[in-house]
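Standup notes
- DV: blocked on the single-chain target, sequence here:
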Amino acid sequence: MQGIPLLSLVTWLPIAAGVLALATGSDRNANYARIVALIGALTGFVVAIPLYTAFDTMEAGMQFVERKNWIEAFNIHYYLGVDGISTLFVLLNSFTTVLVVIAGWKVIEKKVAQYMAAFLIMSGLMNGVFAALDGVLFYVFWEAMLIPMFLIIGIWGGPNRVYASIKFFLYTLLGSLLMLVAFLYLYNRSGGSFSILEYHHLPLTMAEQVLIFFAFFTAFAVKVPMWPVHTWLPDAHVEAPTGGSVVLAAIMLKIGAYGFLRFSLPIAPDASHYLAGFMITLSLIAVVYIGLVALVQADMKKLIAYSSISHMGFVTLGIFLFNAFGLEGALVQMISHGFVAGALFLCVGVLYDRMHSRQIADYGGVANKMPVFAAFFMLFAMANSGLPATSGFVGEFMVIMGTIKVNFWYAFLAASTLIFGAAYTLWMFKRVMFGAVANAHVEELSDISPREFLVLALLALAVLGMGLYPLPVTEVMHASVNNLLHHVAQSKL
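- DV (later): unblocked, structure below
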């Protein structure tokens, strides 16, 4: 694939398709907008596939690199590249975009062109985040991707959508400002370069590293989100349309954890080791405390939102263990969570489209009327609980193995997520799906359509495939993870 600018294509093709969808105009041309969006999403995914198939798993550095001058006066470059860590997220994002377009095909009836355009443009911008190797380019993509999500929540969301969208925007925007300050400091410290890879080798003092670490922490911790800056996420999830919740859970949260891997660890390795206890403490609070909070939720979306925070606590725990089991487990957990949380939000969306309620108490006996849907929902609920042979088990097991190497009691607390996860997920499933038909509204339910079946079946295959045979995912990341760990350990010495 030499000579083909694959990373530019996966970034700009969805954005171009989004602009084309927007150009279809009013809802009289809604079908044209849907078709353009589907073609754009499928093209973006097809273009992303060679990033995996042509990826050299023995190479730890950046591949498919593109570099051109952008703003020469400040030495800013259009600089893209992916390694074994970022490649997987570009694929996950491109795949999720296809599912979101199909899922919203019939559900969205007003401002269809604008809805589809927002998702496609956001998909391209998020691919840009994962591929950017210039600090300014990264920052531009990072902030720009907030705008489509802000509009998605604010326009197509629930009754409190304006409050939720503003809270989401303010939290994530304010958290990012210190990251920009860190980039400007590193630019001066490096002698006038915004190249992220050059920052990995800067001779920074411990004081400098700690300040830079916290500057990045404000941006990435909010995005993950880590406790206690997590409060925007349940509001955003509850008010967002189904597609917005899927992308938020499957991709946008991962960008925060990705930031720790791309910036915090390699640029401030000594500070990362020094503050590892602090990060592990926050992660374990998220795993245990937020898991308990999820147990008392009456709203299905809010329950899954808190579940996401708890599972992302597992991710940040794995990152700051500084061993291969923990770090690779965190990456596997991120990919798995993208499939599982996205699928759970789509399942809630299927029910909401029929009954316009997310309250668990409004359901009961749904399996009697929707047996095919109930089977899919059960699989995803089991995966969320960490059942072996599903993708949800692999990452959690690897992180627990990595944690035992560091501290048994950390591992004991982390493993509690398997109990809490099973408790809140299966209790929700039992109350919604089993028992006698609860009311006349449930009595009128019909099973999933072929379109809904296609979306859930693709996610089911991903969850089972990754659970039964995770090697195709883990072999891509081995070299890059080992290289990162070697760099961090070397700096510590």
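- Follow-up: The mean pLDDT is 87.
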